[in-house]
Amino acid sequence: MCFPQIILNAFKQQKQVHLKSSQADLVTETDLRVETILKSAIRDKYPVHRFIGEESVAAGECVELTDSPTWIIDPIDGTANFVHRFPFVAISIAFTVNKQVKAPMEFGIVYSCVEDKLFYAQKGRGAFLNGEPLNASGQEGGITCEPDSDDDDEVRWQGLSGLCCIPDDMLCVCFSVRALGTAAVDMCQVATGGADAYYHIGMHCWDIAASSIIVQEAGGVVMDTDGSPFDMMSRRVIAASSTAVANRISQVIQAFPCRRDDEDQCRCICGGKGVNSV
Ligand SMILES: O=P(O)(O)OC(CO)CO
Ligand SMILES: [Mg+2]
Ligand SMILES: [Mg+2]
């Protein structure tokens, strides 16, 4: 069985859910299974390639980007959606070589499983959705964001209790807010022109690597929330329909400290915080 079908089959079934770092940081048997299958299929073909996989890192592997060809994998982006059967769950795969922290990936793939939408981009060759070219809007207006996604429960509650995650200053750039529960698909909306910007502090490299090149190849812009060049390890990202929109957001964003993905690794979250059946 192919791995998107594994996710679709499990989507409607009861799941054993383990908590990792917070109430929103979940893992199921399907996350683990899909990551294992993907890594093993790639390793069969490219035995010397390296991996940064969300669930392998949670199990204690290091986040270490070297010059070697590296696959950055999120087996299910939107695990909380998957658990609650909210129909936005994606597989996110990026490929990078020569330690390109700031430059685009070689390619990125985001497959939104329930929607059956395959977003992909290759460096210098454009971005596509199910074979059709993608173009960012170049406008400002609709923003995607994830107010309740953070490894730290306190930060999550701050995002949720604000009712709207958008600071007042941001309202000059934004007319509407959408949160799909998957950063990868949120960012791909910027590539389609359906949304004009996305921003977040606290996502991980596996959440944003693939969609970063999809946004860029669609004519959009990715940058750090402080306005510096995009760095997938910084855990801070703005994806926008134009440089002007990205700059305006970076000027009004309310920053807070966030540990880099490649700092002080490994980040074993062994044992987790509990288990539930949903
Ligand atoms: O479901 P995941 O992979 O934990 O990702 C979330 C981030 O918290 C949504 O992008
Ligand atoms: Mg994710
Ligand atoms: Mg995931």
TrEMBL record:
Enzyme superclass (EC): hydrolase
Pathways per UniProt: Polyol metabolism; myo-inositol biosynthesis; myo-inositol from D-glucose 6-phosphate: step 2/2
Entry superkingdom: Eukaryota
UniProt EC number: 3.1.3.25
Annotated catalysed reactions: a myo-inositol phosphate + H2O = myo-inositol + phosphate
One Pfam family it belongs to: Inositol_P
Essential cofactor(s): Mg(2+)
InterPro entries with a match to the protein in the record: IMPase, Inositol_monoP_metal-BS, Inositol_monoPase_Li-sen, Inositol_monophosphatase-like, Inositol_monophosphatase_CS
Molecular-function annotations in GO: inositol monophosphate 1-phosphatase activity; metal ion binding
GO BP term, pick one: phosphatidylinositol phosphate biosynthetic process
Keywords for the protein's UniProt record, in alphabetical order: Hydrolase, Magnesium, Metal-binding
Binding positions for Mg(2+) per the UniProt entry: E54, D74, I76, D77, D207
Family listed: Belongs to the inositol monophosphatase superfamily.
Name the record gives this protein: Inositol-1-monophosphatase
Organism of this sequence: Echeneis naucrates
Protein encoded by which gene: LOC115057817
